[in-house]
Amino acid sequence: MLVPPHMIEEQSKIIYQINKYYVERVQTRMSIIDKTIREICQIVQDILREVEVQEPRFISSLSECNGRYEGIDVVSPNEFEIVLYLNQMGVFNFVDDGTLPGCAVLKLSDGRKRSMSLWVEFITASGYLSARKIRSRFQTLVAQACDKCEYRDLVKMVADTSDVKLRIRERYVVQITPAFKCSGIWPRSASHWPIMNIPWPHPNLVAEVKMEGFDLLSKESVIFQGKNANMEGDSWILSFNEAENRLLQGAYRKRCLSILKTLRDRHLDLPGNPITAYHLKTLLLYECEKHPREMEWDENCLGDRINGIFLQLISCLQCRRCPHYFLPSLDLFKGKSPTSLENASKHVWRLSREMLTSTRALEKL
User: Fold this and answer.
1) How far is the C-alpha of 252 from the C-alpha of 200, rounded, in Å?
2) Of 30, 68, 340, 341, which has the highest C-beta tally within 10 A?
């Protein structure tokens, strides 16, 4: 098909602007975050070493590989989450019966004695491994380690939460979350995925993702609002972070996410935090289903994909619902105020309108 010269020229301008934005804004953001991660991981590793001395069951899984730290998730440029993988889940059955969307429990296997578990004192009378009890013990150990470590003048525990959160240099918040890695199994609540008759992702990638599995996290969540205390204490939160990252490999998908995160930090960091990087990652995965071909994620299409995701975001904000990619019954806007979502939709619309009507919009963004 012959493309008119003026359209080729217009497309070239958009590609130039996106590449310029990536170099000047996105890579700058990434290098600042990398520097921050190196700084905070040095401090956290010192604390976790002290925790391990006191309690060998809590072994740090934070590791450096080729100059990058694995096991840390960037929530925002000043907020991070480190997942601490625990050992010996084997004597428990994973129970995912849909009672609480986004959650599951670990129940002592039939015929197994409590004494066979490494986590014996955290097993409830009903035979469930309590996420809250493990977190409470870990919180106590981290608090003691903070008092002993060489960085004690730079670190404070965040109060008023059962999560293990550190405030470092009064600038950064780091949450350390105890977790179990569940490889080689796939939760029943996500069994509908992938949706039939959609060509993305390829069956080989689906097999990889399901083999990678998911994590069970011990942390507070809005999922538990209005639920009874026992249910909250025993429940572990399902996390598909690694699976999601695996799906976004290839073509310009990860670059697209980096640009979205940068735009979010610069223009959509709003009161009440209605739009997070995770919302954008989720909508990017839905966009991958809408545009399944690799050629739809090359450099020429990046502008269209970004605009498409922002239009999806406006729709979700106006409907006040953003379904989790793997667990669509779980609403990622739960706990957000209607006012903050309405306000956010106006901000996203202004940003989208600017990007749709001007090829040079990114120069000012």
Assistant:
1) 15
2) 341
Q: Quick check: 147 and 140 in contact, CB under 8 A?
A: no
Amino acid at 344: A
pTM of the model: 0.94
How does pLDDT run across 6-29, given as a tens digit for each residue?
A: 556 677 888 999 999 999 999 999
Highest mean pLDDT among 57-66, 73-82, 119-128: 73-82
pLDDT digits (tens, 9 = 90+) for 174-184: 999 999 999 99
Q: Which of 24, 22, 40, 23 is nearest to 77 (CA)?
A: 40
- CA–CA distance, 86 with 93 (Å, rounded to integer): 16
Give the count of beta carbons closer than 10 Å to the beta carbon of residue 295.
Answer: 9
The residues, ordered by sequence, that sit 6+ positions from 263 with a Cβ below 8 Å of its Cβ are: 306, 351, 365
N-to-C CA span, the chain: 34
CB atoms within 10 A of CB 69: 19
